[in-house]
Write a structure and sequence with these properties.
alpha+beta, two-stranded antiparallel sheet, DNA-binding, 4 helices, Arc Repressor Mutant, subunit A, 14% strand, homodimer, 112 residues
Amino acid sequence: MRPLYHPPVSEITVEGILYALSDPARVEILAQLSNADCEQTCKSFAKIGSKKLPKSTLSQHFKILREAGLIRSERVGVEMRNRPRCSELKGKFAPMIESILKAYASQKRQKA
Amino acid sequence: MRPLYHPPVSEITVEGILYALSDPARVEILAQLSNADCEQTCKSFAKIGSKKLPKSTLSQHFKILREAGLIRSERVGVEMRNRPRCSELKGKFAPMIESILKAYASQKRQKA
DNA sequence: TTCAATAGTTCATATCTCCTGAACTATTAA
DNA sequence: TTAATAGTTCAGGAGATATGAACTATTGAA
C-alpha cells in the first residue's frame, strides 16, 4: 500500500480545491469534518444524507479531498483519522474555504 | 434553438456553483467577465490562457455557467452578451463567489 | 504465532461525462 | 436571396467516475 500523499501548501490550487468540492458528497464530508466534535473516520460517512456509499467510493472521495490539500489523513490503529488542513491554509485559501462552508451550511439550514 | 435557461435565484445551489467553477476555463471566464471592462461575447474567449478552445466547447462552458446561475446571457444582434449575475445573488452567494474570485486572482498574480 | 475481525486501499471494468468536429439556427448586411 | 458571423446542438470517441472483489494493515484473542 503506497503512502498517502499530502501536497505541500505551495502545490495547492484554487481549481484543485473547487474541483474537490464540486461533488456534493465531498462538500458534505468537509463540512462535517470541520465540526470539531465530528467523528473523523471514513466509516462514519458510510451514509451521507440519505445516500449509502460503498467504501471504495468513500476512499476515493477522501483521496480527492486529501490530494486537493483540504484534509490530512493519519492512521491511528486500525482506522484513519481525517481532519481539515485549514489552519495550515491561513490567508491563502482559508477565507475562500470558510465562505464556501458558510454558504453551504446556510443553504442546508434553509432546506431543513 | 431552444431558449436559454436562467435559473431563478431560489434554484441556485452551492454545489452547482462549485461544479461550474471546478473547470479552470470556467473560473477564468467568470473572473474575466467580472472585470467590468471585459468584452462579454463568447468569441472573445476563443483563447484562454495559452489554450485555444473550439466554439462548441466554449458554448458548453457558457451553458454550464449560465445554468449554475453565475452568468446571464442575452442576444444582441448576431452575438451573445454575457455578464455575471452577482448583483442578483447578494447575500446568499455573492460573498462565496467573491472570495473564490479573489483567491483565484491572487493565485494568478503569484504565478506571474 | 496464527486466526479472525475491522478499516481502508487498490484494481478492473462498466457506466457516465466531457470534448470537439460537423451540421444547424439566428441575425445582420449586401 | 445570399453570404457572413456568432453561437447552439448533436453524435462519437476519449477520458473520468463509481463500485464489487480482492488485497493490505492493524489489533486482539486463542
